[in-house]
Design the sequence.
């Protein structure tokens, strides 16, 4: 006995365009659409493009060329207006900040993502009473204006002197006393990062199949083992999103650094602070400002361009 | 392995202070090795019952016993029960091999070798040994279903619980897996509780079926018994497709009087009714006979409303020939169904006589719904021409 | 045969009420309740190591700090003398001072303007972008990434860039205007108090409209194709289809995006700080900058804390109802 | 807790004097480096230089306040003296160094009254001024004023400057005055000079003492003069900082600028832009014979992490050697009157002469020497809104309030 | 109202340069007022065909005609066609009233009053007039379905298109709505194209059914014809549940030889086969007769493998009695199904003889799948006892 072969379920593509067939058929309207999209691209990129151009211009080229024009003379061809001096100076002045930012952002990001994942699992995938208030407190933490904690925060790190507490550490090779400032920042960023990482992980964990987790319980796995063997491996994509998001947040922060750092060079200032201070010299150069801005932005730009897709997904959730 | 007993098991949920009773005082005794099917309409508490057995839901009242142990308070982890979920609930990041090993690793102290061997044996038995290195995402629905089963089987549990395991498969595959599953359970002889709301699965798969409605157990019986000897109106209406025809009647002496017709009863039947006044008469569509005459006992003149040809048989919707009825206004409530062989040609509007043989009728107390009398059965007929 | 159907229906309808009645009658057996408790407890206990440490850390820094901040706002902590945490001296003086401070009201007004204008415009721009991108275009990901790109930048960076963009003489906006013969429109964008706040809002929209787009895009994608098609078959034009069928369905996307955008707006401090320093002037001063200025530049710690608390309450009035509605919808 | 900070963990570097300042670039950096070198040579003690840049010193001020509040001050720091230090004194955070520092090196004799006054905001010496910038300057581009036929030296009152600027603008392409209105302080200091020049030192002092209402006419009048100036400011004043404004003078796009004499540092750095040839400076009209003070100084905090070495450092700061190393590079003049002029260029030498011969040294309002920080903030605020509104009455009212709130 | 013609309609999709032919040269003529059901397995192109008629998909080749107009290039907006979607596609933010008005507001210039009246009338007819102020989220599945239908009906279109409108309903409700829909269409007399992959719907609802497979039209016929006179193997296997039993045979003289049995043919039948060598013999489960003897013509000795009791009938899975077969290894491919009355008691393992009457067999060319011979039918039987 034979039966007709079972056709596999076709992959149903959702095609919005079906609903707007007119657009597909009418070439001109399609062109208008793309033209609009490109114009918007210009709007979003123009400031960045012009800033880059400014950053590679000599002062005189800056005064004589249009902001968004490259510093290249066509008649006669010359690169006279081109210079990387601003970049050299910017990198020189910001390199310690970049280093500090890395030392700060990487651990803070990993810590807050991990803790966020822990917490989200603990209140989402394990059933117990009264978890709602806890969840609400976690989530409300996202929306707290940081101004509301600044004064206590600065008082706190004045009272809790990590530098003295960790004094033995500074004697070790490669350690500096001012790392205590970075440690303070790591703690703060971790704590304030938890709510958002919690939310990201929670929305992800809520959508994990309940039945799958129950299956694991029936398979004899403990709460810990379920996390370790099922939830954690499945969280990889969400960790990517969270890490990207949190990294940019920490990297870009200025406020906490202003408040928590005691201030002063070598005190572990992250790159945003260093960039703010870039204008300290007498000669104000837009080229230097823009070059500095880009030097400081490069890591997050790279992260975005490389992982924009996941990021968009995470942001949307 | 052991027999599983639900002893007055009740489950209520808190809903903002209100109590929602999902399962209400259910008693079932499931024999060692028995295949019990739990059926009922959506929301009747099937899944909840199953989940209480598994330990995924606490028992509000009553006992769940495995053998002599009350297992109410045991966490699922230690119950030695395996469950197959509707969604299969395979671990998507693990290979089939890992999916199947996971339970053994977590719940037993077996060596890796032993586990690997057992997984391999089971996979072979299930015909999925060549899929062991794939991940669930790379499997078809049927294959996933088989892996889910394999994952349960490999643990060699005391009890299998299955919650609509076939409902995600397409019709053809479902009927194939149905037979396979049934055969497998017979071979393994593991006590099994199987939840479904699919008629066919309920009727064909179980040793016995337990029919739930609104959290209350309606009947536990073999499929045939449930079909032919329903305990009450609900079971009678729920089991069978098309449903049994019901007519609400008043008893007047030895005659039942309904809106459309009168039905005389023999003394024997009258005895069974006792002194119930309002009874519901039920007759299965295949027991309604279409005859040419129309003047015999228990024969009624009817008009064909709609014919649904099903190929092998036709469902004929009949209307009592009250004469002069506006045909357009004929609501659903006035028709009843007869199933006739697919080759008989019957057309809309045709007048036919329907015979409702007394031997085939069911009678229910309209108030309580309880069965007063079920059809007479003679199951001794030998294999004979089937139509 | 209607009988059984009716019965089924009746059963379904009546069931919940009946159940309640019954359930109220039955007395739960004590042991079971205990069992339930112990089971819960074990799950609960096992979940503790996961959520409690992060919760304590977060709770201390967020809620602990807010509480502390509140206490400080009751003192008269200022300048270089540490506060005395003596409840007897607590008063609402700082709040009174705020109410009487015209700067506070300017800042509060600017904060509201910034919140509302920025959020609303961002949503509009984001919606338009989302609709444009959601047309099965080629290179959709590229477009989307570009529109979202500014969001990756620090406020410090965008403030630097836009400070230059807005420069009267060499800034790109004025140069471009002059280039196309609209020199008369060239303007002191960020020094004229009339345009200062608008310029800030514009730059912030540039930075964050991509976010609104992404949220709306997800919202649009969640609307079944069938709705577009049904509207088509119903005879609606594209414009009417979006206006009457699609956009009304984006309410929850709008809510979600709006709340997050407002949070961004509250954090616009960095932007203003880099662009204008601690004092952006009355035209662009917002509570966030005012708080920072008062506390960290003028050392009116208690006063700054009071402003912070007011800002926090403002945020709460936005977020509270949102969270509650999310909770009601079971989305928390 | 008080002891906790003393454990020396604070600077991690043992006995190094930690000096915080905001001279992170250009002249200032060269100057302070020279000073540090001099100290290290002399005492063989390492300096831990810990600069905080940005915010025109505001950032450093915030840092210091935070550290002092937390009882973890640096050894010493760059501070504007005068009323700026009043909160520290009031909170008892600065120590009297009248004996330990000021009595040495003949300091008390070598400093003029103005600077000494500024070093003891509360009657006790708590800080050591290192340099002096003059505030009552009017710089001009020689070419431009000559082309316009204006003689800056002949302008005797601030109000007369308006006419001069008109002439400049009608005769040349340059604007009358380069100025920045992006932040408030430039306008505040400009207005202060106008007040000083137009209404005299007494009125000026009365104002700093809070007698605003008593001088309503003077205050309003000086404000309206600045308002008249506004018509002659460069058009992009609102989006510049002072360096960019100053460049306009260098480029010949403006005839005048009012700034502290730090502005001359830019001229010095510019090739082919020489004093008395391409640029010139007169005391701000009406302020001849006065030397309006802006100073940097180094105070001595209580709870000092390196008490003795800090004192050594402060003594050094008050020495001829230090001031001779520092000031030529910085483009400022030494507060000590016994420093040789050899190392100072023609402009600074002239300034030193004028300083030493000055009748009075009124402290700068805009730099916090004359009023409490609170008042300064309020005045700054007022100037910031004046920058956009140019509303004399409103600004006057704010000036009044600035003193009232304290 | 007008008749709808698909004339060589073809649709291909571009898939990165490759052409995927979803609908391949389909010709159907749908009469004014006819109810045509489009069936076929998943992915066969049913929805695509429907969407081309609606104008939601462009036609790659061929014509769609409404009356005499070719409507290929008309946008959906002007086609005067109403569609009911599987998901209902009700606008969640509008009340039922607004949902139903929307189409009229957009596509006609009717006054608000007229629209309100028409909506009310339709709602009354559909029995949803008390739901008018609710939103779709507050309706049950069946109510939503009714609203979706109402929304289509209120527009009074030339053609109804329905894409699996019942598939989201549960079994009981589905069968109820089925009859209701059918009756409604008869009353309204609007040309209707109805897509489903549900057997029962296809058989019972349509005036005619069009069976699609892989984009190609297999047969257009009345349900009964398609059941009893399938044009090819695909239709024969697709229509009917349980499926027709197929046996691949070689012709050797006047005997068909298969793996398990031989089957002799009469001259008449042989004629119909012509000179095809490899034929597939098909027999519907209900045509397989279980007899006591086993030695008659076309009778075969078999063993009962599994019995699936369905209540009104039993599906009996039979295995040819080749003797000594390991019962465990009996794959699905060796069994065939017979449907027998529900009251006959037959047990697993029992030996029975199965008769495959020559009058009931279908023969197909194994290569092309085309039907060579369909069963003989005598539809003239008058209403007689049905079993
Ligand atoms: N966690 C819960 N909280 C409150 N009520 C619940 C909960 N789980 C189930 N119920 C209710 O209990 C009843 C029984 O639910 P259950 O899932 O057991 O039904 P079911 O028979 O499995 O239905 P289905 O066939 O739809 O799966 C339902 O009315 C349901 O709404
Ligand atoms: N937009 C598209 N692009 C590419 N291929 C498509 C598209 N839409 C449909 N197809 C393909 O065309 C074929 C027919 O699809 P269609 O949706 O018409 O099937 P169907 O018969 O309605 O199936 P189902 O019963 O699953 O709804 C399928 O193979 C499908 O993959
Ligand atoms: Mg269920
Ligand atoms: Mg389809």
Sequence:
């Amino acid at each position: 006995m034979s039966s007709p072969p079972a056709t596999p379920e076709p992959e149903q593509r959702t095609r919005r365009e079906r609903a707007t067939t007119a657009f597909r058929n009418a070439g001109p309207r399609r062109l208008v659409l793309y033209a609009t999209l490109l114009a918007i691209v210009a709007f979003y990129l123009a400031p960045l493009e012009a800033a880059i151009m400014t950053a590679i211009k000599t002062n005189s080229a800056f005064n004589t060329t249009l902001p968004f024009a490259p510093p290249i003379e066509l008649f006669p061809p010359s690169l006279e207006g081109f210079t990387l001096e601003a970049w050299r100076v910017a990198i020189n002045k910001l390199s310690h900040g970049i280093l500090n930012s890395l030392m700060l952002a990487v651990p803070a990001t990993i810590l807050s993502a991990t803790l966020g994942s822990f917490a989200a699992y603990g209140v989402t995938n394990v059933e117990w009473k009264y978890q709602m208030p806890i969840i609400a407190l976690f989530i409300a933490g996202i929306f707290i204006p940081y101004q509301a904690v600044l004064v206590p925060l600065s008082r706190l790190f004045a009272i809790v002197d990590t530098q003295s507490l960790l004094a033995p550490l500074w004697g070790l090779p490669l350690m500096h006393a001012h790392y205590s400032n970075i440690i303070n920042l790591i703690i703060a960023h971790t704590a304030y990062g938890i709510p958002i990482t919690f939310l990201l992980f929670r929305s992800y964990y809520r959508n994990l199949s309940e039945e799958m987790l129950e299956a694991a319980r029936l398979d004899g796995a403990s709460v810990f083992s379920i996390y370790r063997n099922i939830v954690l491996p499945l969280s990889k994509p969400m960790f990517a999103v969270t890490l990207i998001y949190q990294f940019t947040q920490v990297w870009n922060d200025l406020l906490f650094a202003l408040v928590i750092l005691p201030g002063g060079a070598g005190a572990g200032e992250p790159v945003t602070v260093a960039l703010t201070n870039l204008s300290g010299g007498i000669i104000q150069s837009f080229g230097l400002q823009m070059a500095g801005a880009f030097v400081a932005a490069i890591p997050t730009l790279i992260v975005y361009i490389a992982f924009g897709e996941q990021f968009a997904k995470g942001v949307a959730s | 392995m052991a027999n599983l007993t639900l002893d007055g098991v009740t489950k209520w949920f808190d809903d903002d202070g209100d109590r929602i009773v999902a399962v209400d005082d259910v008693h079932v005794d499931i024999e060692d090795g028995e295949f019990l099917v739990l059926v009922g309409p959506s929301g009747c508490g099937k899944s909840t019952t199953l989940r209480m057995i598994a330990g995924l839901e606490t028992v509000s009242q009553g006992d769940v016993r495995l053998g002599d142990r009350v297992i109410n308070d045991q966490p699922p982890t230690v119950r030695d029960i395996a469950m197959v979920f509707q969604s299969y609930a395979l671990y998507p990041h693990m290979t089939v091999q890992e999916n199947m090993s996971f339970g053994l690793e977590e719940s037993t102290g077996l060596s890796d070798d032993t586990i690997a061997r057992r997984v391999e044996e089971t996979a072979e038995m299930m015909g999925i040994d060549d899929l062991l290195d794939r991940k669930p995402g790379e499997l078809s629905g049927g294959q996933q279903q088989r892996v889910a089963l394999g994952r349960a089987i490999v643990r060699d549990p005391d009890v299998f619980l299955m919650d609509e395991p076939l409902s995600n498969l397409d019709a053809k595959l479902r009927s194939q897996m149905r037979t396979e599953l049934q055969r497998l359970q017979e071979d393994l002889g593991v006590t099994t509780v199987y939840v479904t709301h699919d008629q066919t699965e309920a009727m064909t798969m179980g040793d016995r079926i337990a029919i739930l409605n609104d959290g209350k157990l309606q009947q536990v019986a073999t499929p045939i018994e449930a079909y032919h000897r329903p305990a009450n109106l609900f079971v009678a209406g729920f089991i069978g497709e098309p449903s049994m025809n019901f007519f609400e009647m008043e008893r007047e002496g030895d005659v039942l009087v309904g809106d459309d017709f009168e039905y005389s009863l023999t003394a024997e039947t009258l005895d069974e009714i006792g002194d119930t006044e309002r009874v519901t008469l039920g007759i299965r569509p295949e027991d309604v006979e279409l005859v040419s005459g129309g003047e015999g006992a228990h024969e009624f003149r009817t008009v064909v409303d709609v014919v649904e040809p099903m190929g092998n048989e036709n469902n004929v919707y009949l209307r009592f020939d009250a004469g002069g009825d506006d045909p357009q206004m004929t609501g659903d409530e006035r028709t009843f169904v007869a199933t006739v062989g697919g080759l008989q040609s019957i057309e809309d509007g045709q007048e036919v006589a329907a015979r409702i043989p007394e031997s085939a009728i069911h009678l229910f107390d309209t108030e309580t719904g309880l069965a007063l009398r079920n059809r007479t059965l003679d199951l001794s007929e030998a294999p004979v021409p089937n139509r | 045969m209607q009988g059984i159907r009716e019965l089924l229906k009746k059963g379904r309808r009546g069931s919940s009420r009946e159940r309640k009645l019954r359930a109220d009658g039955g007395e739960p057996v004590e042991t079971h309740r205990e069992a339930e408790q112990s089971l819960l407890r074990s799950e609960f206990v096992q979940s503790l190591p996961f959520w409690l440490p992060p919760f304590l850390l977060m709770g201390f820094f967020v809620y602990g700090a807010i509480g502390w901040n509140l206490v400080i706002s009751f003192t008269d902590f200022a300048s270089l003398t540490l506060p005395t945490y003596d409840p007897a001296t607590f008063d609402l003086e700082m709040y009174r001072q705020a109410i009487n401070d015209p700067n506070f009201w300017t800042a509060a007004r600017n904060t509201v303007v910034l919140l509302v204008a920025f959020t609303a415009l961002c949503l509009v721009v984001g919606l338009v972008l989302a609709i444009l991108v959601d047309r099965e275009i080629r290179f959709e990901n590229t477009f989307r990434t570009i529109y979202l790109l500014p969001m990756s930048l620090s406020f410090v960076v965008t403030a630097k860039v836009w400070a230059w963009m807005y420069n009267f003489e060499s800034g790109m906006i004025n140069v471009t205007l002059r280039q196309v013969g609209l020199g008369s429109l060239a303007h002191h964008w960020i020094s004229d108090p009339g345009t200062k706040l608008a310029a800030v809002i514009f730059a912030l929209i540039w930075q964050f409209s991509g976010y609104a787009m992404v949220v709306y895009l997800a919202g649009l994608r969640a609307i079944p194709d069938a709705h577009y098609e049904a509207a088509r078959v119903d005879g609606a034009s594209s414009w009417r289809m979006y206006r009457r069928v699609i956009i009304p369905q984006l309410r929850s996307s709008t809510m979600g995006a709006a709340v997050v955008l407002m949070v961004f707006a509250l954090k616009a401090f960095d932007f203003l700080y880099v662009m204008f320093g601690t004092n952006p002037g009355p035209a662009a001063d917002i509570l966030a900058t005012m708080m920072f200025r008062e506390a960290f530049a003028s050392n009116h710690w208690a006063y700054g804390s009071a402003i912070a608390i007011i800002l926090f309450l403002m945020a709460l009035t936005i977020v509270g109802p949102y969270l509650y509605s999310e909770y009601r919808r079971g989305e928390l | 807790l008080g002891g906790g900070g003393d454990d020396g963990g604070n600077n991690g570097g043992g006995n190094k004097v930690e000096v915080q300042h905001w001279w992170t670039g250009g002249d200032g950096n060269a100057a302070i480096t020279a000073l540090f070198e001099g100290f290290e040579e002399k005492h063989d003690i390492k300096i831990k230089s810990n600069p905080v840049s940005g915010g025109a010193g505001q950032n450093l001020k915030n840092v210091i306040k935070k550290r002092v509040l937390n009882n973890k001050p640096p050894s010493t720091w760059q501070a504007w003296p005068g009323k700026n230090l009043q909160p520290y004194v009031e909170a008892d955070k600065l120590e009297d160094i009248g004996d330990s520092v000021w009595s040495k090196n003949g300091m008390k004799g070598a400093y003029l009254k103005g600077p000494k006054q500024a070093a003891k905001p509360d009657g006790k010496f708590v800080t050591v001024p290192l340099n002096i910038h003059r505030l009552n300057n009017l710089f001009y581009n020689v070419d431009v004023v000559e082309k316009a036929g204006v003689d800056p030296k002949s302008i005797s009152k601030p109000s007369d400057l308006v006419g001069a600027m008109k002439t400049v603008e009608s005769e040349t392409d340059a604007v009358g005055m380069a100025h920045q209105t992006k932040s408030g302080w430039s306008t505040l200091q400009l207005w202060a000079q106008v007040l000083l020049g137009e209404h005299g030192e007494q009125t000026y002092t009365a104002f700093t003492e809070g007698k605003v209402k008593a001088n309503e006419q003077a205050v309003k009048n000086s404000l309206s003069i600045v308002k008249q100036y506004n018509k002659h400011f460069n058009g992009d004043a609102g989006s510049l900082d002072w360096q960019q404004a100053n460049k306009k003078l260098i480029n010949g796009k403006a005839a005048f600028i009012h700034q502290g004499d730090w502005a001359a540092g830019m001229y010095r750095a510019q090739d082919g832009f020489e004093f008395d040839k391409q640029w010139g400076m007169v005391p701000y009209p009406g302020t001849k014979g006065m030397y309006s003070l802006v100073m940097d100084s180094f105070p001595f905090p209580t709870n000092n992490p390196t008490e003795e070495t800090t004192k050594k450092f402060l003594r050094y700061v008050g020495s001829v050697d230090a001031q001779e190393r520092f000031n030529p590079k910085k483009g400022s003049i030494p507060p000590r009157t016994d420093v040789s002029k050899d190392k100072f260029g023609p402009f600074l030498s002239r300034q030193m002469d004028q300083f030493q011969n000055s009748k009075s040294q009124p402290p700068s309002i805009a730099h916090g020497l004359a009023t409490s920080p609170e008042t300064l903030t309020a005045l700054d605020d007022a100037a910031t809104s004046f920058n956009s509104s140019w509303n004399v009455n409103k600004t006057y009212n704010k000036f009044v309030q600035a003193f009232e709130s304290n």
Residues B 13, 15, 20, 22, 40, 42-48, 197 surround adenosine-5'-triphosphate (ligand 1) (CB under 6 Å).
